[in-house]
Amino acid sequence: MSKSIRLLGSLTSPYVRKVRIVMAEKRIDYQLELEDVWSPDSRILEANPLGKVPCLIMEDGGAVFDSRVIVEYLDGMTPVAKLIPPSGRERAEVRTWEALADGVIDASILVRLEQTQRPPEQQSGKWIDRQMSKVHSGVAAMSHGLAEKPWCNGHAYSLADIAVGCALGYLDFRFGTFDWRGRYPNLARLADKLAARPSFVDTQPPR
After folding, report:
1. Contact (CB, 8 A) for 103 and 168
2. Which residues, 6+ apart, have CB-to-CB distance to 60 below 8 Å?
3. Is the Cβ–Cβ distance between 170 and 108 less than 8 Å?
4. What are phi and psi of 198, to 5 degrees?
5. Counting Cβ atoms within 10 Å, is residue 190 exposed (0-12), middle (13-18) or buried (19+)?
6. Residue 78: which pLDDT band, with cuts at 50, 70 and 90?
7. Is the pLDDT of residue 3 over 70?
8. Which end of the chain has fewer CB within 10 Å, C or N?
9. Rounded to whole angstroms, how far apart are CA atoms 126 and 134?
10. Is the dihedral of CA 114, 18, 196, 100 positive or negative?
11. Distance (Å, rounded) from C-alpha 22 to C-alpha 16?
12. DSSP H or E run through 20
C-alpha cells in the first residue's frame, strides 16, 4: 500500500484511534497528520466541511470522513484480517456493536465538552446527567451483549471489539472515576485481551 494515504486526526480522539487500529490490523500504510480542530489555524475544513476528524485523504486527494464510513472503506481495501462480515445478520450485529460503542463515545464527549468548554456557572447538570445516563446504559448493554463470549460477536475478533475497546479506553482516559471494570468483569477481561494487541498498544492516547 502506498504511504500517500493520509489520515487527519488527533492522538486523543477515540474515533481516530478506531481508524488507526483498523489500519494496523489491515496492515495499511499511511501518514498520520495531526490536526487540532479547535485551533484557529486548523485546515480541517479544507478536507472535511464538517470540521471533524478522522478524515482520510486518498492518493487522488479525495476525502473520506466519519469513522464508520472510513473503517468500512478500509476493510474492503485488502483481504487481510477482514473485520466486517460481508453480509447478513452477522454483519448487522457487528455494525450495531459499533453504533453502540460510538454512542457511548458521543455521550462521553458531550459531557467532557460541557465540563471543559463552559464556565462552571453555565454548565447544565441536567445535560451532564442525561449524557452520563447514556454512557452507563450503553456500557451495561455492552456487558450484557458480551456475556461470557470470547469476543463481542462470538468467537472471532472483529470491528465490534475494536469499537468497544476504543469506547472503554476513552472512559479510562477521560472518566477515570467510572469503575466500569469493577461493575462489569467480562468487559474488563475483553479490555485486557485487547490491550495486549500491538494495534491497541501503539494507539494509546498520551497520558
Report:
1. no
2. none
3. yes
4. -55, -35
5. buried
6. very high
7. no
8. C
9. 13
10. positive
11. 10
12. helix 14-26
pLDDT, tens only, 51-72: 999 999 999 999 999 999 999 9
- Strands 55-57 and 6-9: what pairing? antiparallel
Beta-strand relationship, 55-57 and 63-65 = antiparallel
Which residues pair with residue 65 across a beta bridge?
55
Asked if omega into 54 is within 30° of 0 (cis), the reply is: yes
Show the cell assigned to 66. Answer: 466519519
Q: Which three cell numbers stand for residue 94?
A: 457487528
Residue 40 grid cell: 484557529
Cα separation, 39 vs 123, in Å, equals 23
> pLDDT, tens digit, for every residue of 98-120?
999 999 999 999 999 999 999 99
SS3 category, 37: coil
